[in-house]
Amino acid sequence: MSGNRLNKMEEMVETQDEPVVEAVAPEIEPVVNKEKKENIVVPVPVKGSWREVLDRISYKGIVKNMPYLMFLTVLCILYITNNNRAISLTRSINDKSKELKELRWKYMDIQSRLMYQTSETQMINRSAALGLKPLDRPAFEVKVKIPAAKEN
């Protein structure tokens, strides 16, 4: 049996020079215009054809997909707004960090000046202008003994 099938298939291949491709034509539906009573033939687009793609892009397709297009528009607006906000936030962070560096340098400068001004040698020079001089002897405590009062 298998030999007969192979022979039949070989005969079919030899007789056919070109493969036969069956094309499906789009169905045509007559549309009746009630005012003029004329039959207008409107071709129904085949799935995946150029006509179907053009119908999606046409006014009818746009109106049909309006909620989706509005959603995409809102998403685009939110994306642009978020991007602009992030850029301005980055700029303000950079400005604040520059200001912080400057204030840190001012703090360190003032702190070093204060340390220099309060050093012992600077204090001696300043007090000499007021007529004060450093102690020659170490400081000492003065203790005063108060005699206890006698009661009569």
TrEMBL record:
Pfam families the record matches: FtsL_2 (PF19579)
Annotated InterPro entries: FtsL-like
UniProt-recorded name of the protein: Cell division protein FtsL
Organism of derivation: Taibaiella lutea
